[in-house]
Amino acid sequence: MIIKKAEFVKSSTQVKDCPSGNLPEYAFIGRSNVGKSSLINMLCKRAKLAKTSSTPGKTQLINHFMVNNTWYLVDLPGYGYAKMPESERQKMTKMIRSYILDTENLVCLFLLIDSRLSMQKADREFLQFLGSNGVPFVLVFTKTDKLTKSQLSRNIEEYKISMHETWESMPAVFLTSALKKKGRDEILEFINSTLGE
Ligand code: GTP
Ligand code: MG
After folding, report:
1. Domains in the chain, start-ordered, CATH in brackets?
2. What residues flank ligand 1, with Cβ below 6 Å?
3. Looking at ligand 1, which atom is closest to the CA of residue 52?
4. Between these two residues, 146 and 22, which has the higher pLDDT value?
5. pLDDT value at position 197?
6. Alpha helix (H) residue ranges in the chain
7. Which of 49, 52, 88 to mutate to test the pocket of ligand 1 (most atoms within 8 A of CB)?
8. R_g of the chain computed on alpha carbons
């Protein structure tokens, strides 16, 4: 798929403020700092479309970006940021979870995982939430440029083993690097193939 146009539409704090209409949405979620906003920019080939930062907790709202006038990429705040005050963290979790449960046009959630790390507690909890609510999702491993090929395949294998502790089958998996622009074609092809469904 070719991205001809990508534009910021709006930031919202709750689903009822999100853009109306029934365009398909693809949302990006994962721990703070995992690279959600960077991946959106990489997919759109626009370095500054979504705001990124080396400090966790940059994205705090639900951000809609319209692509080719026909579908949305949605940049969500990260979860599991330890330094955020507990009350803030709870507020954020509630915002993310209600976006996911209440957005009827959410086609698929991209769950981003830092390819350097084993399964973190926050990810485990989030996966449980997705499973018990039947939310369609795929796994996206990020920052693969920070690992050697063999370290990367070892980590992915270990992640799959952790997944199999609770999941019968694995969701689709994408390996990405926003820095090296890796995984772009595969993700856009996946989006293209699910758009008509
Ligand atoms: P929050 O909005 O705070 O939840 O973070 P986020 O998940 O949107 O992460 P963001 O895209 O802001 O990136 C966090 C940091 O990781 C930034 O310093 C990015 O430059 C860096 N980063 C993101 N993707 C990659 C990648 O593929 N490779 C490398 N080396 N760094 C990356
Ligand atoms: Mg962000």
Report:
1. 6-194 (3.40.50.300)
2. 32-38, 52-54, 56-59, 77-78, 142-143, 145-146, 177-179
3. 12
4. 146
5. 67
6. 36-44, 86-102, 121-133, 149-164, 184-195
7. 52
8. 16
Say what angle helices 86-102 and 121-133 make with each other, to 10 degrees.
Answer: 30
**Residue type at 124 in one-letter notation:** R
Average confidence score pLDDT of the chain? 95
CA-CA distance, 59 to 37, in Å (whole number)?
8
The end-to-end CA distance of the chain, in Å, is 16
Q: Is the distance from CB of 149 to CB of 42 less than 8 angstroms?
A: no
According to the model, what pLDDT value does residue 196 have? 77
Distance 61 CA to ligand 1 centre (A): 16
- The residue whose CA is least distant from atom 5 of ligand 1 is 33
Q: How confident is the model at residue 64 (pLDDT cuts 50, 70, 90)?
A: very high
Place of tokens 């146009």: 5
Residue 101: per-residue pLDDT: 97
Q: Please report the atom of ligand 1 found closest to the CA of residue 30.
A: 7
pTM above 0.90, yes or no: yes
Amino acid at site 21: G
pLDDT tens digits, one per residue of 157-192 = 999 999 999 999 999 999 999 999 999 999 999 999
